[in-house]
Amino acid sequence: MIPARKPPMATSGIGPWFRQNMFNNIGNSIISILAVAFVLLSMFNLFTWVFTEGHWEVVWKNMRLFGVYTYPTDLLWRPLLAAAMTMGLVGLSAGLAQHDEDGGEIMRGVFWWFFALVAFLAVLGLIFWESVRFWWLIVAIVNIGGYYLGKAVPQLSRRLIWIWAIGIIAVFVVIAGVLPADSNPESAMRFVKTKNWGGFMLTLIISAFGIIVSFPLGIALALGRKSKLPVLKYFSIGFIEIVRGAPLIAWLFIASVFVPLLLDQSPDKVPGLYRVLAAVTLFSAAYMAENVRGGLAAVPNGQTEAAQALGLSAWQNTRMIVLPQALRAVIPAIVGQSIGLFKDTSLVFVVGLFDIFNVHKIVATQPEVLLIPGGIRLELSLLLVAVYWYFSFRMSIASRQLEKQLGVGER
Amino acid sequence: MSAKSTNSQVVVEKIPFYRNVKIIGALAQIAFVVVFLLIVAFMVTNVLSALRKANIPADFSFLGRRAGIPISESPIRYNSQTDTYARAFFVGVLNTLKVSLVGVVLASILGVIIGVMRLSSNWILKQIATVYVEIVRNTPLAVQIIFWSLAVLLTIPPRSLHPIKLLGGGLYSNLGLALPWLFPSYRFAAWLPWLIAALVLGIVVYGYRRRQIIKSELPGNPWPLAILAFVLASAISYFIVAGGSQVPEKLLTTINDKSGVVQSFYDANDNGSKDSDEKFLAHAKVDISLKEGRMTAFTQSLTESKKLIYSEFRFPPILPSEYSKATVSFIDEEAANAEGLKIHFYDEPNRGVVYKDLNSNGKFDRGEEVFDKDGKTTGYSAKLALDIEDFHRQVVTDRDGNARVPRFKHITDDTKKAVESGPSSLFGGPAATTNADIKELQFTVNPEKTGPLVLSKPSIPISQYSGGMSFSASYLGLLLALVIYTASFISELVRAGIMAVPKGQTEASKAVGLNGLQTFNLIVFPQALRIIMPPMISQFLNLTKNSSLGVLAGFAEIVVIANIIGNQTGANVPTNILIIGSYLTISFAFSIIMNIVNAKMAIVER
Predict the structure, then answer these.
(1) Is ipTM strictly over 0.85?
(2) How is domain B85-138+472-601 classified at the CATH fold level?
(3) Which of B258, B345, B307 shows the shortest CA–CA distance to B159?
């Protein structure tokens, strides 16, 4: 008779999981123990520092600077109204996407991620921030309201692009104001000068403007680069390669020097924001063009040939056949580029704008902060890391999900 | 065939000119050129008129003028008093290249490690790598530079008089990192022909071995023998040159006993002293000795690594091997005794704390540091003296022919006694100056015999590094941020590249009997490298371009120096053109490298 063999080792459960994944041989076991010790030690140090030593009260006191910089205090409801409209549009789009077969799940994830932040801020607002007490709650309600509206009324999806267009203009009007400041200084809708815009609001404005405006420019440059007309082609190539050849910070310096000169104005007449927007948009357009070019190359030649066989003109072929397919393929790349631009807006300090990154310098050099031994650069940089990360991380996940769904890179 | 062409001929003739694609294209291009030129002309006239109005210089003539910009670190000799703006800008370019090249190497190494970690079978390693990548990639580089340079490197490390001593003689403090370094001395020129000969020998051996291996049709590698030949030949010639060398008679050294600056120079006219037309000599080894001398220091309360330290004194660090006897005492011994002050050493005789033995257990306990009477920590200090006997140190002068030793003072009976009695001279107030401080010290400085290369070890005589190769804290902060940021992108490339190697390759290599390491080194990684290299080079370019954020760390690279020049001269337009020009040149160089690599990496198809 064959003697009974030992039962095979268990492969499920906690013990076997550890054995397989962390302690499968001596070398790995040593590495695992060291790594666990490293993680525990750094976690312990970080948390002790964050909860016992960090001077967070300074950060907390300056939340308004981080949010909107020196935007007039009596008008704080306006950026928040703009935030409500934006978040409403985001919610609406996410809700409408639930009717699609493919995009729904990704948009849902993004929506809840950002709703969590808004809801958190709503709670903070209710408890601590007197000046904007109910506004954050309104933002949260509009956000989730938009989501369920979109879920309930799928017909809106046909008009979504127009709703967005109107919404963006409205957001701009609300933030900038409509009435000249000298007509009535107390007016609720008076102009707010761009030098008072700042904080995270400005970060979002610059990234949104840059990515939206650079989109058509980038498509034009990409088509120009593929064009058979030599002038267009070499102009596009020259523009793209020169812009991509130097770092954004150099272009920002150039914009701050050249834009007033180009318009033959004295430098103080051209607000820094306009110079930044010009530089950021053109810079982003060059990168956008390269992304779109990748998409154009991914559209098989047969598509163009089939369109020609059907009698479509070159323009119709580009607009109705090639571009829709090309752009669809480059959505992940464009999301990636948006993240990059969002991170790069931190460079506008060179023009003297006070986005959230540059605000940290003001806070770090406040007189009472200078008395704190060692300063509070660590606290401030951790805050910035948290803010930028919260937005970029979720978008980069979405970009990867889109990539997977579109099957890019799987052919 | 011919029928077809006549057909198309007919079709072309039927198209009216306004629908002819070629004509439309040509017209569109002409229109584009016209509009483009109009816009350019409009802009140029605007710029020119604005420049005239604001009286801004628009040419590059300023480059020849004297700069007067102090640049704290420069890979080449730079003198802000005599050198031109052109040279200052060149220093910026070199600084950019210095941080980029080192950054590229370190980022590749870290990137490969992280990339491999992300594919590791060890769960916890994989998680650490993933968290690293997800945090670093999703945070702006600007924030990371602030984090590393201002939040970590500038606040955490100890002050310059209390450096961390690294293995092998390196020092680390808030001045930055200083490493022992080999420099070519004045004997190097004598060795150079030998070195070239050794190189030629290496090449000859390589060629010979190569031919031999090809002939023998056996596997082999010509490199080891060639390298061995080169190393042996250069080492032997080094010792020949070093052994025959004498200290040149015209090499002289001087010391300024007030500032502690040692200088080495060629005494061209044999008058025994340094004249203005005589050249300093870089990297000469100098032996310095001093019979007896004194250094003074105040105790102070300071913040270090975010901790408050009370009543500590620090002398410029001196090693035990450098003296025969060193004693630390209160300058005003009587007053100190009256107050019951004692000295506790952390690092005798360089560093310690002044305390009162409150619980009279005979030793220092925390809390016994001497505080001010009203509990504040400012303005309370005791003056201490470090008396040293038979001090001697070997220093290597830097590329400007300078080296520094601690600032010693002359000891006389005056200084040995109390300067003035009473607590006012012991605590606070300016240091009492006596005639003794001004008298000359009896230093002897002698140039030492050196080989073609001379090892220079860093020290901190007076609030800056002397000797060795030093890297400033701003350079380190920028480098660290760039490396960590870029490595997160490189690691993703490495991961994707390794994952793209078909599994069959691994299986086949296992079947052939290679072990895990061999499989990775010989089969998987070389194939992955083909996929990784092209995007990796564009990451290298990104790193180089991102070094323009050096302004945040205070590192003097292209953009920083160009902007200083622009602000000084008002020539902002030309300096910005210089910035763009330099980066475009660098990008162009990278794209040439990229093309070469792509050609090399391309799979040769049959």
Answers:
(1) yes
(2) MetI-like fold (1.10.3720)
(3) B307
